[in-house]
Amino acid sequence: MRRFLAAFLSSLMLSALLVQPNGLARESVQIETPLLKFAAFSDTHVMDAWNIDPYKRTHKFTHALRDIKAFQPDFLVINGDLSNGREQDLKRLKSILKANGNYRLFPSMGNHEYYYQWENSKWNDEKAKAQFQQMFGLKQLYYDHFEKGAHFIHLSPEQYMPMQKQIGEAAWLSDKQIEWFEKTLLASQAPTFVFLHQPLDNTVGKTDPGVSAVQTEKLLAIAKRHPQVVWFSGHSHVSVTSPTEVVEKEGITFVGLGSVYQPIELVKKRSVGEANQGESSFRVDQFKSESRFVTLYRDRIVIRARLHHNNSWGDQHVIRLKRQKAVDKRLSTA
């Protein structure tokens, strides 16, 4: 009798799950599969030396890689300031990456990739660039690739020490790179993700003089001629939780990537415990670690803030794809 009642109750429960109140069978729920997923990091600042601060850097990078593993990104972008420019720093970063997901990596140079010159007078910009290309197998410093019909363009600051007194930590791009960018970007109308370590002037937060791209006007004039560009920057370390870090301007979406190593919070007034740099006042939280996670669908791009320090999601920003017919054709043949 007990077996009969148990079977009867199980049958009722199954019926309740499969039948709607109107007596119609419930339709199966279809989960939309994204075309592409990628993680976008910046300012990891990995260093090889084993003292307290470099250990914190390596620990945060390691944890961020482990944190994104469950979401199965197709690849990883690190948009500058991977390290402090020494060969052993870059080797340390690669070894951590290999041990924690071994993601396909698309890196860009930042200003800190040139920093070994402050330690070694025999080092220079050309050696720094050659080392970066050799370390990551890049044919040239700036490059592009297509993934599932989306276009990815990775730009790079090309000079540091010879111009440091004039431009500080800003990005300087050669005319050759800017001409390449124009030709490469406008050759396709696919949705395009552009990466440059330093932000463009007056876009995301903390674009003070000596921080952003010297050739902002030229780059912006080119980018706004394309139907759909999402422009990612790092360098400022401003937290992805700040409302300043997703900006729509000239038809372009500008997105700040925060920092895996040390995001900062912009504040209006300086008080005890806050740092001051130029006209920007900010607060550092040594515990935090942040990045972005991007998902591409046929009709939209979803950009989510990832807070590695507590393994949670922050705000998300949805961008509807333009030129849908042209986009669909490319995506369907990708």
Automatic annotation (TrEMBL):
<keyword id="KW-0378">Hydrolase</keyword>
<dbReference type="InterPro" id="IPR029052">
    <property type="entry name" value="Metallo-depent_PP-like"/>
</dbReference>
<protein>
    <submittedName>
        <fullName>Metallophosphoesterase family protein</fullName>
        <ecNumber>3.1.-.-</ecNumber>
    </submittedName>
</protein>
<keyword id="KW-0732">Signal</keyword>
<dbReference type="InterPro" id="IPR051918">
    <property type="entry name" value="STPP_CPPED1"/>
</dbReference>
<dbReference type="InterPro" id="IPR004843">
    <property type="entry name" value="Calcineurin-like_PHP"/>
</dbReference>
<dbReference type="Pfam" id="PF00149">
    <property type="entry name" value="Metallophos"/>
</dbReference>
<dbReference type="GO" id="GO:0016787">
    <property type="term" value="F:hydrolase activity"/>
</dbReference>
<feature type="domain" description="Calcineurin-like phosphoesterase">
    <location>
        <begin position="36"/>
        <end position="238"/>
    </location>
</feature>
<feature type="signal peptide">
    <location>
        <begin position="1"/>
        <end position="25"/>
    </location>
</feature>
